[in-house]
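Appendix B: complex inputs.
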Amino acid sequence: MTAAPEHTPTMVRRSVSELIVPFTPFCLVIFLICAGYLAIGIPSSWMTLTLSGLAMGMMYFIMSTGLTLVFGLMDVINFGHGAFVSLGAFVGVTVLLQLGAFSESPVLWQNIAAVLLSICAAMAVCAAVGWGFERLIVRPVYGSHLNQILVTMGGLIVAEQLIIVFWGPEEIYFSRPEMLKGSTEILGATVEKFRVLVVSLGLAIFAIMRWVLRRTKIGLIVRAGVEDREMVMALGYRLRLVFVAVFIAGSALAGFGGAVWGMYQEVITAHMGNQALILIFIVVIIGGLGSVEGCFIGALMVGLMQNYVAFLAPKFALLSNIGLMVAILMWRPMGMIPVVKAK
Amino acid sequence: MQSEPILELDGVYTDIGQYHILRGVDLHVPRSTVTMLLGRNGVGKTTTLRSIIGHWRARQGFIRYDGMDITKMPTAEIARAGIGYVPEQMGVFADLTVEENMRLAAVSGPINSARLDWIFSVFPALKTFWFAPAGNLSGGQKQMLSIARAMIEERKLYLIDEPTKGLAPAIVSTMARALADLKRQGAAILLVEQNFAVAKALGDFADVMDDGHVIWSGAMSRLSESDELQQKLMGLSLAGN
Amino acid sequence: MIRTLLSDDLPRSRALTFLLIAIVLCLALAPFLFPGVRTVDTAARICIFVVLVASYDLLIGYTGIVSFAHTMFFGLGAYGLAFGLIHIDRSYLAMGLGTLAGGLSAAVLALLVGLFSLRVRAIFFAMITLAVASAVAVLFSQLSSITGGEDGLTFKLPRSLGPAFKFGTETLDGRLFGVKLNGKLLAYYLIFFCSAFLFLGLLRVVNSPFGRVLNAIRENEFRAEAIGFPVIYYRVAASCISAIAAAGAGALYAVWLRYVGPDTTLSMEIMLNVLLMVVIGGMGTLYGAIIGAAVFVLAQNYLQTFMESAASLVDGIPILPNFLTADRWLLWLGLLFVLSVYFFPKGVVGRLRRGKTVPH
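Resulting structure:
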């Protein structure tokens, strides 16, 4: 046997193009915004559409992260995720209506407090229901995608019907808190005030998620678990508990997104989760199952696309997002930021 | 040497799907020794290690570690009881940096700096690439990281699966020195190894497997001295060595 | 002769055989055994859903992939027939051409979706088909100038399939065993025989060498690939065949209803019904489709009546009646669905065949 070489090994310096590649997904968002400008041509409408697209994207992001992580960690595909969006919306709006005094007062902080309180309530209820959903619906079907799809789909239907049982089959119309109604001017474009709040909430969630995933031990476990769950267990972590925690957190976030989305539209129906689920799927597929960053970028792109196309050719909004998904998958078959190895 | 072995497998049967891979494995790993698990490809060496750590479950038989029955224990608890596992595919988290890989491996708290210094002295390359994503490391460096992760906490037993596979000779010798170092610290090692030179240099005991059984068990020196025995137990694959 | 018709795939259980013979006889003689608008309507629905469920089982049971776009293909067949009858004329030729066009577009769409999503990862297929199906459903309800939007399209069948058409008036006095011989009867038998034809065709497919490869892929994808079967192409081909059969069922449904609309052909609810029928009957066996469809369509007709009466029993108690109104039957269906996947994964056929070894 020969002795080890004396010099320290070094890595090959990476070329500029290799350094750029990881950032192409971010560039795509910028590209989409520019393309939107060219297609629309009216700066003020473009500005309005872009901002509402970003707001919508943030909501999709909040709703999708749980799904993508749950898949990444345990290879579980949860079609019931949409139920938490509906549930969050109903709980959030119910609480908001209870907080009438706060939401009708003309004081901004009270309004925002009412919104945040109802979001918290939505998250709490969704977390609790998510825990039950994981135990009753998801746990018995680990390892079998076919059964997971069937059972969670059944769970979605049951949950949707239960919402109707408790809240009635009609759509619920309501109005947002006083100071969050109407719009304001930013750089010459009219922007609904609530959208500004949504964008800031979305950015805050993204920042918190990034911090948790990058800086905390549990974040490390989640990221490592997405890559290789056996090894994480072999290091001594009970991944099941982490998975349940992630499932609960994901359900709570879906509830968060649902509550915000409900307030955004000022009308809620039991089927809204079902509709959201389709876009959530497109978002996680575009982003790459298991990747939070990919999910964020995917959500922004879907939100922007949705708004631009809804303005240009309203009937093709959903179709355009499917087109977007097709294009992305042609380019990167595993999504923009693939982290889960093909199974 | 203490009388009670650190690890004891008693008639372990493990199936993977419809295939019966292990068919009654009996194995003893004495404390503070290196036990080599040898045999041709596909005889069940990796499956034995995976059954010990709990990735596959034994259908029948017992696995005892340090006086505990770990046959049905969750993998995480087996690991926390003091077993370090280095899988054949190394199990390095490519998306995490070297530092994050190590921080994750330190299950019970922050990284112990004395142990880290020791690891850096054995594997200097890890210090160089401390903040680099583990996915950018070379194969040898990944193997070092994988072993280093097992070393970062105090272990009584290491399960190491082919640490020298596909590595350049220079790195093989680094590995061998690292393993010798581990042994000096008093840990027991159960090592799957195809490189007979490494096996000869490190091993105290050897267990040879064939077709899901342990077919020979004894001192490594006996095996390495007898060409005839090697020939008989492992066929032609090691004739060159 | 029967063996050949059934492609050598016999029910392999005495109870199952009796059950199947009973169902098929009832369907074949339905207009004579149960003369009545509602019962004949039920029988026709069973025939159509047997084909739809069987074609879905080719995917989920034999190939092991879940699609949520099956009603989309069903709808394409139905709309194809409607377009043919509306835009060409009230003839059998137009019916045939319309169905053909619907079937072709279903096949092309299935090919595109399949090639696209199965190439990437089988699990994407479920998600992508869900997205595509809802996009198409939205599109069909919005392009109202072409598809009639939410209201759908009504159309006229060839005269000889309408209730006004009478035959055998001279020889049999217009009646056979007391049943009026009219176009509606002809329409029923058109549906019955077309369904039988499609079902036997599917049976032939799953028992062909092609079907056996599909089974091998479901059991172990990697091994099938390793032996040298291009898994993707087999799966895509299966999804195309299943789409064509579904389109055929859709066309038959349109013939029976003389109407197409998004709710009756494209909705998620029908997709769920199909899933439930597959699970009840038993996945991976086409006979399950016959049993699943029969049990489900009968239950669907009577469950709602039952629930209504149950709801009136608990009237006055808060919330409880909400659980039991006929509008909430999807709730119970969903529960039933989840429970059957857990406790009844092989369905009725699996139960009846239990204890018998299934030859591989």
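Residues 157 and 241 of chain C are 27 Å apart (CA to CA).
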